[in-house]
Write a structure and sequence with these properties.
Layout lengths: L1 H7 L6 H17 L4 H10 L12 H4 L7 H8 L1 H9 L7 H6 L3 H6 L3 H12 L20 H16 L10 H11 L6 H9 L1 H10 L12
Helix pairs in contact: 2-3, 2-10, 2-12, 2-13, 3-9, 6-9, 9-10, 10-11
Length: 218
Amino acid sequence: LRLGKAAEYRDEETGNHIIRVGCYCRAIAEELNMEHEFIEKIFLTSPLHDIGKIGIPDSILLKRGKLTPEEFKVIETHCRIGQEILKQDPKGLKPFLEFHRNHTLLQKIHNPILEMASDIAFFHHEKWDGNGYPQGIQGTDIPLVARIVTLADVYDALRSTRPYKPSFSEERTLSILQEEKGSHFDPMVFAAFEKVIDQFRLIHEHFSDQMEPDEIVR
């Protein structure tokens, strides 16, 4: 959540966006009957999906208007930047580990939280039909965690005010999402989303952009 907060300071989204996405993802994962560990991990790691925006210039990230093709290519790099920040052995860490007297032990430690967070950051803009980025993979080649975050993130983006758009009504949001089922979104994940839409409404209302929650309700 602290890393997510850092990303928040780079673009003009509120911290409530990352909280909502975490709660949305947990609701979908529960509806999919995922194991408790998976549910807890996606709840904790999904708020980091856009951490890579730390590396995007303000002139592009905060632009009020349509991006040029060249600018969009720059935006796309936030997925790889996020992966690099979160992956188990990021570039530049080796010299520190070699200097540390316990570096051999540290290198052997496997962190499943970092693993999931890195996958989410890298793959959350892939699309079910293969027309996403950064790799253009499709279907179940996209990690399930990323397929869940994709739907949660797009839902919240449509319902929220952004520098380039006003907030959309729930009716219009659901209409747009429905059109993208099977192309942008995994049909299985979308079916789970439809079953928990009442939870999405409550989450969106409880953590609205006008509120500053003191804690995440578990």
